[in-house]
Amino acid sequence: MLTCGIVAGPLYIVMVVLQMATRAGFDISRHSASMLSNGDRGWIQIATFAVSGLLFVAYAIGLYRVPGPGRWGPPLVGVFGSGMVAAAVFSADPADGFPPGTPTGPPTTMSWHGTLHLLVAGIAFLALICACFVFARRFAAAGRRGWAALSTVTGAIFLAAWMSVFALQAARAANVAFAIAMGLILAWTSLLAAHQRRRADR
């Protein structure tokens, strides 16, 4: 099941990048990846959320079975995966010209599913940030300073990028920074899975 964790992050990143390149009107500096769930090909992003989320849940189960990750790390990864699955069920609202034909600017009202999407996304992001710091503490206690530093820096960067989206009112630079930070933290999950699988194979 740890292999699921190696695959989950890259799968999500690749699918989002492919859609960024092929979906008319989508601009990562203006639109969140969640908005790809809208439009005729919105099912692709919905499936991406669902499959990636289930892989993260399986990854969390695999982490739980490996000695060392501690009590809180695996459940936090599981919460993140569950949040991705929930994001597939509760789609984000269209906004700011995407999909094409949508009025420019934020939506004047939010749908119930758009509101729930923001809620589950917030819970998922917070869980993954906490997972970074929990694993950082575990690695530090085990004397693995490199992994402790990587986990701490990854969590801190993602938290700062996420907060900047709100502080700067979704400015283009903040949106791009958040997308990059998302790629970074998903890469961390894959590296962690590979590390734990090597330990389990010994």
From TrEMBL:
Pfam families: DUF998
Transmembrane helix found in the keyword field: yes
Keywords: Membrane, Transmembrane, Transmembrane helix
Residue ranges of the TM segments: 43-64, 76-92, 112-135, 147-168, 174-194
Protein name: DUF998 domain-containing protein
Organism expressing this protein natively: Actinoallomurus iriomotensis
